[in-house]
Amino acid sequence: MKYDAPEWATLPILERVRRSLPSEVIAPPLRRLDGVGLMCENLQVTGAYKVRAICHLLNLLKDGLGPKGLALASSGNFAVALAWAGRHYGVPVTAVMMRRSHPWKVQRVRDWGGQVVFSGDSTEERTEALHGLAQDGIHIVDHLTDPQVLVGHATLGLDLAPAQPRQVIVPASTGGLLVATSLALKQINPLVRIVGVQPKGANAMVDSLRNGELKRLDTVVTECDALTANRPGDLPWELAQQWVDDMVEVSEEAIRATVRYLAEEAKLVVEPGGAAGLAAYHSGQIPEQEGTWVVLSGGNIAPARLAEWIQ
User: Fold this and answer.
1) Domain 51-141 adopts which CATH fold?
2) How remote is the C-alpha of 309 from its chain's centroid?
3) Which residue among 58, 132, 183, 249 is the one 20 to 30 A from 279 at the CA level?
């Protein structure tokens, strides 16, 4: 099967964007553990893959931004990446974060010099608060609909491609990283299998693909603070129907065990959401296959919380 990428996400465009990112945005080490490949985005400069997209966006927008800069909505990792990139490029930035965002991530945003505005805990409330900032002269980026966010995320797929994966497992919240990884890899090898993973208590994309229509969750219950979307993003949902091969759910218990396993066996600090893909694979939710790679999407877990989990 041939996959025709949208005109804004063709391989030449993705490759050009990858070359434009700052040197601090690394191609993370590709490690193997018990026969499974690990793409360690938890080792990025801000501790998660989100720095790829925000640096791409600021490369595009920085010269045209007003004095109040740029804002986006995030449960945590995108906000941290935004604050780091704002300092790197000298741009004022504001993160709209949910009231339930982990305090440790909120403080990291402030430590990098980002402003924080709190919203309600649903995707809709967060988006409404973000759009309200446009009235104050702040340029807003809506990651649920902006294709350039996916272009930045897709550089992860380019960095994974040299490993020649046959199956790639990706944690999913709104679905942006999931479809973006597929956009890159399926243009290189249409046979690569892309599988998304969500916690059982935050499975909006799983539910949507299962039913063939975008679904919204009334409640979200998970310790994966990076995977708390109560609905897929509009653009990721549109693309997921073609570009994602399967979606599975994983338990909180399996995720906790995998965070501990990665710390003990691989000496890697991985947050719960970042460990969801490997947790699903280890618990048998995804068929074993040679050439399987798992994206460890983030490592931003508070030290006290990690210490509690690995006791």
Assistant:
1) Rossmann fold (3.40.50)
2) 22
3) 183
Average per-residue pLDDT for the chain: 95
Q: Which residues pair with 198 in a beta bridge?
A: 249
Alpha carbons 240 and 211: distance in angstroms, whole number: 13
User: Can you tell me the distance from the alpha carbon of 94 to that of 240, in angstroms, rounded to the nearest whole number?
Assistant: 29
- Within this chain, domains 7-48+147-309 and 51-141 share the same CATH topology: yes
Nearest to 48 by CA among 278, 253, 301, 248: 301
Contact 259, 309 (CB under 8 A): yes
The residues facing 140 across adjacent strands are 71
Q: DSSP assignment, residue 266? A: I
Q: What is the Cα 51 distance to its own chain's centre?
A: 10
- Run of H or E residues at 107: helix 103-111
Tell me the pTM: 0.95
Q: Is residue 216 within 8 Å of 231, Cβ to Cβ?
A: yes
pLDDT of 2 over the 80 cut: no
